[in-house]
Amino acid sequence: MFARIFTLLALSMAAMVSGLPASTVTGGSCNTGTLECCKSVQSPTSSPIQTLLGLLNIPIGSVTAQV
Q1: I need a surface site. Which of 13, 38, 50, 54 has the fewest CB within 10 A?
Q2: Cβ-proximal residues to 66 (8 Å cutoff; 6+ apart), any chain
Q3: Bigger pLDDT: 33 or 59?
Q4: For residues 41 and 63, what is the distance between their CA atoms, to the nearest angstrom?
Q5: Are the beta carbons of 28 and 34 closer than 8 angstroms?
């Protein structure tokens, strides 16, 4: 009895899995068009950066990297 239930379960699982569509992963490509870049960076403790971050309500915390 248990062998029949197990066989039925195994066959139904195999049928269910074989019916799923295969997902294909293609190589990604990025087309950003004209890429723009900032030509200068500043210290996060400089006055203009502090003003800008304050107006935007962005907490800078203990970041020491250039922004």
Answers
A1: 38
A2: 41, 42, 43, 44
A3: 59
A4: 14
A5: no
